Structures are given as C-alpha cells and as structure tokens.
Amino acid sequence: MAFESIAREWRVSPTLPVLKLVAAVVLLALGLLLADGDLLRPVLGGLAAAALVAWGVRDLVAPVRLAMDADGISVPQGWTGHRRLPWSVIEAIRVDRRSGRGFGGAALEIDAGDSLHLFSQLDLGIDPAEVADALLAARPPAG
Predict the structure, then answer these.
(1) Do 25 and 44 belong to one domain?
(2) I need a labelling partner for 85 at 20 to 30 A (CA). Which of 1, 67, 113, 136 fits?
(3) Please, are residues 96 and 103 in contact by the beta-carbon 8 Å criterion?
(4) 53 and 36 in a common domain
(5) Distance separating alpha carbons of residues 119 and 106, to the nearest angstrom
(6) Model pTM?
C-alpha cells in the first residue's frame, strides 16, 4: 500500500472523559460532605471539580489528538484547534520510555524543529510505539 492512501487518526478513549466527569462529581460531593461548617473544603472541591469538568469537556469536544495523511500530521493547538505539520518539517519520531515514581510509561515524541509534541497512551488510545511505527511507515522518503 502506498503512503498516499494512508490517512489515520488517534483519539482519546471515550471512557476517559466520562471518568473525568465522574471524578469531578465525586470531588464536589466529598467537598460538600466533609465541609463540617468549613467553607474552604467545598470551594476547593468545587475548583478541582471545575478543572476536571473542563478537561473532560475538552476530551469530548476535541478527542482527536493526532492525525496523519499523505501531506503530514495534525497535532493539537490551543483548546480545540489543530496545527498542521508537513512531513518535511518533522525531524524525528521516537518513543521515550520512562519509569519510576508513578510516572512510568511510553511517550510518543514528534520533533518538528521549532516544537516538540508529546503524546501518552491516554492521548492516543493505543500504545505510542504502535503509533510511531505507523507514522514512520507512512512518512515519505526524504529527498
């Protein structure tokens, strides 16, 4: 199959925003239940809940984190926008694996010279190594 016919996108799993919204409700409820006359606890619970709701809504409104086609890739920019990167500006595609202190896991790194784009498995819905393989296979030969 020629690379011109390959168009693909990777998105946040649909369960992730739902989990964020449920966690927001739980945080708000905990803040209210544990208030015990203190105004700070419900306010902090509400602020944390609002942040989770905003994060969850973003995942619902703009679930696609990475897309590719014959001309290049699209990466997130801003709240719901995307930035188009032609293949010619992409300097490197690699997977970085880190471990320790609860922050382990693989991250897909796309180096576009003036910008570095990082994606976790939660962003892509699958293992970043699989996405890296697909990107490298679709990337046209230099020259």
Answers:
(1) yes
(2) 1
(3) no
(4) yes
(5) 9
(6) 0.80
pLDDT of 4 reads 45
Do 84 and 120 share a structural domain?
yes
Low-confidence ranges of the chain (pLDDT < 70): 1-5, 100-103, 143
Residues 35 and 70 in one domain: no
Number of structural domains (the chain) is 2
DSSP line for the chain: --GGG--EEEE--THHHHHHHHHHHHHHHHHHHT-TT-SHHHHHHHHHHHHHHHHHHHHHH--EEEEEETTEEEEEETTTEEEEEEGGG--EEEEEEE-STT--EEEEEEE-SS-EEEEEHHHHSS-HHHHHHHHHHHSPPP-
pLDDT of residue 137: 93
In a domain, 143, yes or no: no
21-33 pLDDT, tens per residue? 999 999 999 989 9
The tens digit of pLDDT for each residue in 97-109 reads: 877 666 678 999 9
Same domain, 110 and 49: no
